UniProtKB/TrEMBL annotation:
Source species, domain of life: Bacteria
Record keywords, A-Z: Cytoplasm, DNA-binding, Iron, Metal-binding, Repressor, Transcription, Transcription regulation, Zinc
Gene3D superfamilies, sorted: 3.30.1490.190, Winged helix-like DNA-binding domain superfamily/Winged helix DNA-binding domain
Natural source organism: Zobellella iuensis
A Pfam family matched in the record: FUR
Keyword Manganese applies: no
Protein name: Ferric uptake regulation protein
Assembly and interaction partners: Homodimer.
Family stated for the protein in its record: Belongs to the Fur family.
Location of this chain's protein in the cell: Cytoplasm
Length: 149
């Protein structure tokens, strides 16, 4: 799906949900959609300043908070970065595979992992309110470059 179509879909969802999709939120959404992989708030700020020269860190963080709340992006906690979500129209389980060598982030949607995690939490009397499952390692390409690492 093109960035323009994703933007149109996000606009429709915001309208249905009764939330404001401000120009700044649109800009950050578009920057995230165009970026492949995880990106930090300060990298986004540098790019946003090309569109909105007066943008400051709180501008980006407020927009990211909105995008997170609407399910348009995910936070990669261990990298303190953000990842655009292509599946934002639906609620879905999410697990991340993160390459420590090249920075590739692969988003998985495995309901079995999600259920196993939830069941383990319940066995321990734990009620999950927020979930982030991240695994670090080396992607296929990086492993092929240096197979013994």
């Amino acid at each position: 799906m093109t960035v323009q179509r994703q933007l149109e879909q996000a606009e429709r969802l915001c309208e249905q949900r009764g939330v404001r999709f401000t120009p700044t939120r649109r800009h950050v959404f578009t920057l995230m959609a165009e970026h492949k992989g995880a990106v930090s708030a300060y990298e986004l700020l540098d790019r946003l300043k090309e569109l909105e020269p007066s943008a400051k860190p709180p501008t980006v963080y407020r927009a990211l908070d909105f995008l997170l709340s609407q399910g348009f992006v995910h936070k990669v906690e261990s990298l303190n970065a953000f990842l655009f979500c292509d599946h934002f129209a639906e609620h879905h389980p999410m697990q991340l595979l993160i390459c420590n060598h090249c920075g590739l982030v692969i988003e998985l949607h495995d309901e079995a992992i999600n259920q196993a995690f939830k069941q383990q939490a319940e066995l321990h009397g734990f009620a999950i309110t927020s979930q982030s499952i991240e695994a670090h390692g080396r992607c296929r390409s990086c492993r092929a470059e240096t197979p013994n690492c």
